[in-house]
Amino acid sequence: MSCRGVSTNASATIFLIILSAFTRINGDTVMAELDIKQAEELEKKYDSGLQTRVIGPYLVKFTFYFSILFAAYHYVTAGIGVPIDYWHMGSHMAGVMILVFIGFPAFRGRHNNKMRPNSWWIYGNVPIWDWLFIVAGVASAYYVGITWYEIDFEFLGGRFQLPDQVMRQGNPATIDVVFGTILVVVLLEAVRRTLGIIVPIIICIFTVYAVFGMYMPFQILKHPGVSWDLFINSMYFPEEGIFGVTLWIVSTVVFHFVLFGILAQRMGLGQFFVDVATVAAGRYTGGLAKVSVVSSAFFGTISGSSIANTVSTGSLTIPNMKRMGYPGHLAGGVEAASSAGGQITPPIMGAAAFVMAEFLELPYTTIILAALVPAAMHYVGVISIVHFKAKRLGLKGMPASEIPKLWDVIRRGWPTAIPLAVLIYVLFSGYSPHMAAFWGITTALVVGFLNPMHRIGINDIMEGCVTGVKYALAVGAVCSAIGIVVGVVNTTGLGFRLGFMVTEVAVNFGEATLPLIAWFPLADFDLQDLTLFISLIMIAVTCIFMGAGLPTTALYIMLATVAQPALGNLGVPPLASHLFVLYYGVISEITPPVCASAYAAAGIAGSNPFKTGLSAFSLGIGKLLVPMVFVYSPAMLIVLDDYFTWAEFIQTATTCALGVFLLSSSVAGYFLAFMNGPSRVMFAIAGLLLVSPNTTAILYAFLLASPVLAHQIYERYFNKGHLTKET
After folding, report:
1. Which of 62, 275, 327, 521 has the greatest number of beta carbons closer than 10 A?
2. Is the predicted pLDDT of residue 621 greater than 70, yes or no?
3. Helices (DSSP H) in 196-341: which residue ranges?
4. What is the pLDDT of residue 524?
5. Which long-range contacts (CB under 8 A, 24 or more apart) does 498-503 make?
6. Of the candidates 718, 710, 644, the residue with the CA atom closest to the CA atom of residue 683
7. What distance in Å separates the CA atoms of residue 491 and residue 225, rounded to the nearest whole number?
């Protein structure tokens, strides 16, 4: 927890690693402007899951060693096998409850940064009601395991009997309902403390819907409703609800990869990524901005947090981009957009890939292969905009003297990449994700001990364990609670009801607007096409709003449960629909007004937060376009045999790249020369038309883009005087 004498913040660790890298600007050697304390406070400011209180010295030691024990338990069980699911999930949840209610205050304020003296109602700055929450949370977490089998005993002259859990399904005992209700309340409070009030409100709305479904105002939403006893029965016992797939994935996979990422960063992998990115992109137009994009893409393969990614790499890249002439809001936007892209970048994808594999009952490797091309398209868009913005601003690349030699980078850093290579190899060998994480962590420990360039010691490992646990608390709490939403949707069929409503609204809107656009000679543009397009827009906007402020794993679980069925009703392949909601959920991280990654970047850049958010959103334009493309042409996802042909894939990938390229140029206002307003609009429309990769759309895109391209060639090669200023 946040306390005196103990540093548990990952960004500080990462920044310490990166701080050793120097950058020369205009012949002078400079370092990143932030110090460790500033980096730590910055991430804590914008990540509610890190906003802990000061606690007493004995609780500092307890949380420190308890976190190490908690991490060790997950590491060992990943290698030798986890206990029975209800015991394992209960143990994970109990550990999360203990640390959440010790570390996170009921209400945030200045007094949480001050130590209050011990008294009958407070110990170590933790009040008595938080200790009661801990007792209640631990007891209710373990209750399922304790009462799984028949209990029959006498105590103080009375006899207590409880049949096997299987026999109580559909007819829970009173004590089952009591402990289940306690767990629901405690989980909601844990989520409120770590992530704010929005998610608990959403869960409460779903709970009310489950119990009072017969009173819903719209007939499509009505259902018979369930009693509170049956609701708790469904939400509390394994298979669905709290002890369902979401908690299982968090306790067996997500935490392990968070821990792997932290340890990999500590043993120098983050620095290696930055160095490789500098070699790969530093010499080209835009210099450090492209280094930021490439390093964030690399970093995203091991990072489960876009905010952590932004603060760590941005601490170096943002100040130096500003020195090279980038406006503060643009420098911050570049880093935020690139870092958010890490949540859709294989192999980890913010841990959402593991949950997706469970939901779809597909091999994890299938998810990764499907996500490769869409992720690449996102970075094509970011790099394109960065390139054109740099051209527009007249920014050059880094001088060759300031770029490290490739061989020197490889010689110093190649051992740090071994753990990641081992992890990927084990994953693609068909082993479980938690086994891959086990071998990745083990390799990181071995390499960290033996590598003289980036050697880690016992203290580094212990602090890494503490940091990993701290990062996993908010995710652990919210994913447990989100299980309630999953259970309600599965029990009531709400997902399909909402999907039907979306389709009906889209059909009605399409019927009203189709005559208005019928004059436009678009071949094959009928009511079905318009309905699909309107539905996709509605679902995309819903995903962006619902995903605001949530960790990637949690937002994906919620959107896959609530929004994805609507896409299924439209005939979209399941894998494409799941990736669609994930993409638009992640976009919320760079979409104002709730865009924590952009605000963190603005804190480093000293720029206007809202303007930085707008810059990040515009830079992530590829992330807006790409999901539409693989819905219209699932061949982009490679792994869908019913849709994939090489001809279709090549056409789709090419038109998508061209569409992203045209949109990027339009956003930047530059291609070969400065672009005026009409030229930018024509390029943007041409790029959007390429969303639907058919011959007609390609033809219209070509007709729109050709005059702009011809004008750009004229301005670039025959009217060079216009290149010196914007027009």
Report:
1. 275
2. yes
3. 198-211, 228-236, 245-249, 255-266, 269-281, 288-300, 306-323, 328-340
4. 54
5. 498/562, 498/563, 498/565, 498/566, 499/565, 499/566, 499/567, 499/568, 499/569, 500/220, 500/569, 501/218, 501/220, 502/535, 502/538, 502/539, 502/566, 502/569, 503/531, 503/535, 503/566, 503/569, 503/570
6. 710
7. 10
Query: How far is 329 from 312, CA to CA, in rounded Å?
Result: 18
- d(CA 181, CA 168) in angstroms, rounded, equals 16
Task: Report the alpha-carbon distance of residue 341 to residue 482 in Å, rounded.
Answer: 24
Which among 310, 301, 454, 294 has a CA at the least distance from the CA of 368? 301
Most confident stretch, 106-110, 158-162, 417-421: 417-421
CA distance 579 to 41: 33
Could you tell me the CA-to-CA distances from 620 to 378, 460, 465, 548, 666 in Å, in that order? Answer: 7, 35, 33, 16, 13
How far is it, in rounded angstroms, from Cα 19 to Cα 43?
16
Q: What sign does the CA torsion over 578, 236, 89, 148 have?
A: negative
Q: What are the C-alpha distances in Å from 68 to residues 8, 62, 71, 464?
A: 12, 10, 5, 9
Report residue 64's pLDDT band, with 50, 70 and 90 as the boundaries: very high
Q: Are strands 122-123 and 126-127 parallel, antiparallel or unpaired?
A: antiparallel
Q: Rounded CA gap, 581 and 617, in Å?
A: 17
- CA 492 → CA 169, 201, 207, distances in Å? 18, 19, 11
Q: Which two tokens stand for residue 285?
A: 């137009």
* Contact of 591 with 540, CB cutoff 8 Å: no
> pTM to 2 decimals?
0.82
pLDDT for position 684: 86
- Summarised one tens digit per residue, pLDDT across range 251-281 is 888 788 878 877 887 777 777 877 887 887 7
pLDDT in tens, 219-250: 778 888 888 888 888 888 766 788 888 888 88
Least confident of 303-307, 344-348, 407-411, 680-684: 303-307
Q: What is the pLDDT of residue 723?
A: 46
Whether residue 574 contacts residue 332, with contact meaning beta carbons closer than 8 Å, is answered with no
Q: Please report which confidence band the pLDDT of residue 620 belongs to, taking 50, 70 and 90 as the band edges.
A: confident
Asked if the model's pLDDT at residue 500 lies above 70, the reply is yes
Helix (H, G, I), strand (E, B) or coil at 25: strand
Sign of the torsion angle spanned by Cα atoms 552, 553, 555, 556: positive
CB 92 within 8 A of CB 476: yes
Query: Does residue 80 have a pLDDT over 60?
Result: yes
Residue 685 is which amino acid? Answer: I
- CB atoms inside a 10 Å sphere around CB 231: 24
Number of neighbours of residue 723 by Cβ within 10 angstroms: 15
Angle at 624 between CA 678 and CA 327, to 5 degrees: 65
Longest Cα–Cα distance in the chain:
102
Choose among 559, 47, 552, 620: nearest CA to 257. Answer: 552
Q: In what helix (H) or strand (E) does residue 122 lie, and over which residues does it extend?
A: strand 122-123
Distance CA 103, CA 621 (A): 38
Q: Report the alpha-carbon distance of residue 407 to residue 446 in Å, rounded.
A: 24
Q: Is the peptide bond before 707 cis (omega within 30 degrees of 0)?
A: no
CA 264/CA 260 separation, integer angstroms: 6
Taking the CB of residue 647, how many other CB atoms lie within 10 A of it? 9
pLDDT digits (tens, 9 = 90+) for 419-477: 888 888 888 887 888 888 889 889 988 888 888 777 788 888 888 888 888 878 888 88
